[in-house]
Structure formats: C-alpha cells, structure tokens
Amino acid sequence: MDASTGISPPLNWRQSDRLAAARAALQTRAESAPIALSLYGVSTAYGERAVLKNVYCSFAEGAITAIVGPSGCGKSTLLRVLNRTLELVPQGRVLSGSVSFRGTALHQAGVHPAAIRKRIGLIHQRPVPFPMSILEDVLFGARYHGLLGASPPLEYARSYLEQVGLWSEVKDRLRDRAERLSGGQQQRLCLARTLANQPEVILMDEPCSSLDPAATQQIEELILSLKPRYSIVIVTHNLAQARRIADRAIFMLDGEIIEQGPAEEIFTSPRLELTRDFVSGRIG
Amino acid sequence: MTVSGAAGNFSARVSSWRSSLAVSEESLQETVARFSFLFLLIAALGTLVVVLLMVAREAYPVLFSRSGLWGLLITESWEPLSEPAQLGVRHAWISTLAVTTIALSLAVPLGFGIGIFIAEIAPAAIKEALQPCLELLAGIPSVVYGFFGYVTLVPWFETSFEMATGESLLAAGLILAVMIVPFVASTSAEALGAVPGDVKEAALALGVNRCWMTTRVLVRHAAPGMFAAVALGLGRALGETLAVLMLAGNSVALPASPLDRGQPITALIITELGEAGVGSPKQEALFAAALVLMVVIVAVNTLIGRLKRRMLHGRV
Amino acid sequence: MAAFDLSLRAERAHLWQDRVFIAVAWSLGLLGFVLPVSIVVFLFYRGAGAISLDLLWQSPRGFPLGASGGIRPAIEGSLALVILGLAVSLPLAVGGAVYLTEYSASDRLRRAASFCAECLAGVPAIIYGLFGYSFLVVFLQMRISLLAGGITLGLVMLPIILIGAYEALRAVEEKYRETGLALGVSRIYVFRRNIWPKARAGVLAAVVLAAGHAFGSAAPVLLTASVVMSKGGLDLSSPVMTLPTHLYYLVSEASSLEQAYATALILVLLLLAANFSVMRSKSRRQR
C-alpha cells in the first residue's frame, strides 16, 4: 500500500495491519530527518499559573511526532506556543525561551504572527465549522492568503476535499452550511481547510478525541497520508493511537519534557522509569 | 353510600384538586399568600391586555367606515374639514417610514461599529467608561432630544439649505438615529461577546487578520443577535413621539423628499387627538393608525425575542 | 529572515486593512463617547445660567406664559404623577413577579408571562396614553387630571418593573429557597427572610429606572394630564404641569428659550442622578 497517494487497501485488512505497513514504508526516512521546529528553554504561564517549565525539544521535518502525557501536563499549551496562538488566549504568556522554525526565531519583533500561522496550521480538538457554506469554509484561509490564483475556487477546494476523503460526500451540497456536517466530517473539513492554506507544518490537538472509532480511523489514515509533505505534531492522550501513527514521541509530565526520541524507543524500551510507568499504563 | 363514605370522597377530591394546583401541604396563610400574588399577576397582565383591547375597540369601526382600512392607509389624505371628511393617514405612515429609514441607515452602521469596538477592540478600561455613556444616551428623554434638535439642527438646516424652516423629516431622522444608537450598540456588543472563543481562535489560527476574522466569521456567527439589535432599534424608532413631533414639521401633505416636512403617525395622534370629538370618525381613524403601529411594533418585538433566544442557545 | 518578512504585497495590504479597521472602530467608539457628553455639556453651557433658586421655587409668569418666573408646579406635577403611578404599578408588578418566581410551578406560565411582559414593555408610551385618554379621561370621566395621568404612567411603568423584579428575584439562587423550605417553613417566610433581602436592591434598581423613564415621558402625559399652566397646588381631579410637557410647551409656543434650556438641563440632571445611583448599586452588588 502506498500511504502517500491514499489508495485504500482491501477491506479485509485489519486497521493495525494497514497502519503498520504504511509506517514501515516511511520509517527509514524519519530517523535522519532535519529539524523543522525547536524550542529552547521555553516557559509559559496563564496569568500567574506556570504551565510549561523550561522546555527543550525538537520536531523533525516530514515526520509525525506525538506528544503524550496525562491531562493537564501542558501538551496543548506546547502546541499553541508553536504557532503563536497562545497569545490569543486571555492571559497566555511566554515567559522566557525561544521557538524557532527552520532557524528563524518566531517570537522576535518584525515577525508577524499571522504569517506564522499560515505556515504552521493548527487543528483543534473539537471541530470548528464556520458559519458559512462548505465551499466557503474550505476556502476561508486560502482566499485571504491569495492562494487561489487563477484556478477556479471549486477546483481548488476540490483537490483538498478529495485529499481528506470528503469530496464524494459533499460534492452535491457544497452550498450547504458547514455546521450541518457530522462530527467526523467536520473534523475532516477543518483538516481540508488547513491544508488549503498550504502550510508546511500541521499541529493537531487531540483531533480524534470527539470522534467515533470509524471516523478516528479515517483521520489516522489521513494523517499518515500527509507525512512526507508535511511535518506533523500531534497531541494525543490515546497511547494506542500514538503507537499506531507516530515516528517520534515526546513524553511530558507537569509542564516538563521527561523523555523524547524515536517512537519505537519511547513506547517499547524507554530509558526512564517514569516513562515506562506511563507507557505501560501504571500512571496517567 | 354512607355519610362517612361521601365525606371521604369529598376530601379525596379536594386534596386531588389541591395537588393539581401544586398546593399540597399548605397552611391557610400560605394559600392566602399564594392566591394574593396570583391575583396580582393576573391583574398586572390583565390590565395590560385590557389596554390593548380598548385601543382595538376604539379603532375597529374604521374597518366598517366608508373607506375602510384600505382608505385609511392608502387612498385617502388627511383633510378632516373637507366635505366629506377625508381621514386617511398615508402621509403619516410614509413619514414614519421615512424617518425610521433615515434613522436606521445611520444608527445601524454606527451601532454595529460601536458594538464591534466594545466586543473586540476596546481595552477593559475603555469598555467600562463607554457602557455608562451609552446608558446615558439611552436615558435622555425624547422631549429633550427634540429640544436639542430644535436648537441645533433646525437653525443649521435653515442656514445651510436655505429652507423656510429647518423642521424636516431629515432633522427628525438624524436625531432619532442618535436616540437608537445605544440600543443597537449594546445589543450587538452582547451578541458578539456571546460567540465562543474557539470560533475566533480557529479563524485566527489560519493566519487571517482581525478585520477578516471579525467581519467574515464573528459577525456572521452572531447574526441572530445582530438582527435583534436592528429590530430593537426599529421598534424604538417606530414608537418615538416627542422628538419627531418637535422636529418633523407637522405637515399633512405627502412628503416627497427628506427635506420636506412630514408628520409621523405618533405626531399625528398627539396633534389631532385633542381636537377630535369623542367617538367621532376622526378619533376612530387616529386609534386605527395607532393600532396598526402597535401591531407592527409587537411583531418586531416578537421577532427580537425569537432572535435573542436563538442567539443564546447557539446555532443549529 | 526572508521567509517571514512582510515584503509580499498581499501581507502588507492585510496589515493596512487591519490598521484601518481598528482605526475606524476606535473613532466610532470615540463617537459613542462624545455624543452623550456633548449633548449634556451643551445643555449645561446654555442652561446653567438660567437655573436659580427662584426658578425652582416659583410659578411661571409673564407673557407668553413661562417667559419668566419659575417651574415649581412642573416639578411638583412630575413628582406627583410618578408617585401616583408607582402606587398603582408597584404592588401589581412586584406581586406578579413574586408569584412567578416563588409560587408558580409551571414553566410554561413563566415563559408566557415573561413573553407577555416583554411585548408590553416594547409598546410605545403613546399607546398607553391613548388608552388613558379613551378609558380614563373620557369613559370614566376623570377628565384631564392628575389621577388619569398617574394611572396611565403606572401602566407605562408596569411591564418594566415586572420584568426587572422578575429578573432580580430569579437571580437569587434556587438553593436558598430549597434549603429554607426543607426546614419546613412556609414559602412566604422563606421569601421574607431569605429571598427578599437579596433581591431587594435589584428590584429597587428596576423601580428607579422605570420611574426615571416615566418622569421623562411626555407623550402619555400630554394626552391625559397636562396643561400649559396650572394654578399650583395639586389636586387629583385637576390637570398638572410636568417638566417634560413644560419643555414641550415652551418650545411649541415659542416662549422663553432660556427657561427651556434650564428645564431641559434639570430634567437631564435628575435622570442622570437616578441612572448613576442605579449603576453604583449594581456595581456594588457585583463586587
């Protein structure tokens, strides 16, 4: 199976087999990948409450990195620091440290947050359809950034809707309100919308946590299909999911990075006992 | 059936009657209190309903008059002294429409702009200072607004546009706009503030600027509340009396331009009612005009209620 | 670094669009501040000079009437009307609200009553004036009088107080009622000891706002109670002068402009004071 073209495998394959095959095909590339994003000593706070404490970590180019940890450990905050949406939350502040994207520091003067957010997209936990038609929703960011160019809007939207597997389901009702779609469809729409923005990195904050298993499976396959073209950082509280799709993993606890490395290592033979406890389900 | 059996039956029925009124185990004092308050509620709402019915009662003969409702509203002009008396109010509702349109076309953009400012852009301290200012604006009585327009706008119109008198539909409309701005502004600010944060965040996460996010996502999401704001302004403008009475000019001719004098329905009523004989056709016509106005306003207010409920309970 | 600089024309355009957008919003916000302040300042500037103890204490004199002298009967008339109106509307409105929150078991009744009251609050005051004219003045033969005007103003205030009192009572959490009743006391006792002290300030605020609204309203009064000049002394069966109608007459009869400014200023200041006290009490309650 070739994960990057999204050809769906025969129906009698088990989900885990499919995903394992997809990963194996791309595994070797992930190890020697260059770095897309890195954090140096980043500390953040909401108002007075410290959340991230002196975080050092990196995210490889073209790979899927999973951030795991118990709830409240700061995973979502870490994500939001990466595309500077932390500052949109009232009272969210970066206290110290720096974030760099391919060598450029993100929090310096002269760098506009909107420019960053175009290149580093974010999928939220609960899908957020906009109050407009499905077509308008997909094209929302693309129109703004002038990405449509000469191509007709329908064609542009179609390519991304096809990529997320939504085209056949919505092609006859593109003028319907986006809010009318089911949960799984809405999340795929959000992904299409982000992809239509032509980002380079995609951040995902527990994208499947509000979806049923069938929709979850679809999203996971989608994520794998994105891999070589985009760098993906996915926050998940579902260890099995992380095992299924991640190349690299970061384990966090209480706002600190405990361990990070290749996914194989973190999930089967972690170096620290704390990590081992979490991964085996004894804590968390 | 024995006497005790009958008595038992009776008390069973009384207690089931009492429980159907949710009165269960209550002392006499409680029951008295309950029914007194219920009486007051019925008196309160009943009185108000009686008010509306009485106005309707005075008005309905118009339906059976020579010209009927059609004549009242469309074909006849207001010439009570001619033979036969013409008692049409078309000049009045056209004036009301004109004044309201002028007022809304100014107050809605201004009110929306202030609403967006309050909800999205103003820092907390400015918001705290602005709310009382808007309440102040809403609290100035209609007659003072009329007076203010009379001493500022009317002379200015007379000099700038070289009119015989500055009293005009435009002057009334301008002052009316100022009167309804606070209602439009605070309702739209409320509607915009009710939009959940993750919608705004999701839009900004795509890298768009605040203008794009506000106009294309925020306002659209708050659309029911924004419509409610417009409807609120409309309802107020339709019912305004003193300001338009003092500024619109009180002319019974059909107005042809905003600079003409006119006579909105409310002004017509105040001006003519005193001279209308009790029970005369003139009085009936005035009440009928008032009734039409009231029906429209109640319809608008019902719409507002529906829209506000949709706003609070989220979108479909 | 080149990757993020804003040399792309589209990005620059968006930045400017944002700046213009924010600038326009600020200027509109400023307008929202300037409008009320400038109206009050204007009235103050033109009217303060004419206010004197004489003005407040004497009756109108001169020709045409009102050109000199004072506005005392107007102040008295306004107060009398509002007090009479409150006497009519307060028990009905507060009593009705108490029933809705304390006794009514039916949610449908509450919603229907609420809807009714809101519709009626939206009915313009002139409609109540028409009712007052046809029913009170003519049918009941009260004539143009303080009594007719007072009852009419009471009707104007009724839905406003009803809604305000209902909201204030509703704001008191259910737990106070539940725990009180669980101790086996009667509802009226719980109400008097637990609920009313908490809701009192909110109800009072609604009453003050309604009274202020009625104090400044001229349309219903013109139809039921007012007259250009009264001989002073309040009598239920005689017409009265009120501040807003006096202002209207001064303008429509083109009498003293100076007195008009003074009357307008006094009216605005009194209402400002009422609104201010309501806002103060609201913020104190929220703290």
Describe the protein's topology.
The complex is a heterotrimer of chains A (284), B (316) and C (287).
Chain A: H1 15-31, E1 35-46, E2 49-50, E3 55-60, E4 64-68, H2 75-82, E5 92-101, E6 104-105, H3 113-119, E7 120-123, H4 134-138, H5 140-144, H6 153-163, H7 167-170, H8 183-196, E8 201-205, H9 213-225, E9 231-235, H10 239-245, E10 248-253, E11 256-262, H11 263-268, H12 273-279
Parallel strand pairs in A: 4-9, 4-10, 7-8, 8-9
Antiparallel strand pairs in A: 1-2, 1-3, 1-5, 5-6, 10-11
Helix pairs in contact in A: 6-8
Chain B: H1 3-20, H2 28-59, H3 61-64, H4 68-75, E1 78-79, E2 86-87, H5 90-121, H6 124-139, H7 142-151, H8 153-160, H9 169-193, H10 197-204, H11 210-221, H12 223-239, H13 242-247, H14 265-273, H15 281-312
Antiparallel strand pairs in B: 1-2
Chain C: H1 9-47, H2 53-57, E1 60-61, E2 68-69, H3 72-103, H4 107-122, H5 125-139, H6 146-170, H7 174-182, H8 187-216, H9 219-224, H10 243-252, H11 257-286
Antiparallel strand pairs in C: 1-2
Describe this structure in words.
Chain A is 37% helix and 23% strand. Chain A is an alpha/beta fold. Chain A has one domain: 3-Layer(aba) Sandwich (Rossmann fold), CATH 3.40.50. In chain A, the strands form two sheets. A six-stranded mixed beta sheet of chain A has the order 7-8-9-4-10-11, with helices on both faces. In chain A, strands 1, 2, 3, 5 and 6 form a five-stranded antiparallel beta sheet that branches. Mean pLDDT of chain A is 83; it is low at 1-13 and 24-31. In chain B, helix 10 (197-204) packs antiparallel against helix 11. Chain C has two domains: 10-50; 57-286, MetI-like (MetI-like fold, Orthogonal Bundle). In chain C, 76% of the residues lie in helices and 1% in strands. Chain C has helices spanning 9-47, 53-57, 72-103, 107-122, 125-139, 146-170, 174-182, 187-216, 219-224, 243-252, 257-286, and strands spanning 60-61, 68-69. Chain C has a two-stranded antiparallel ribbon with strand order 1-2. The model of chain C has no long low-confidence stretch (mean pLDDT 84). The interface between B and C is large, with 92 and 85 residues.
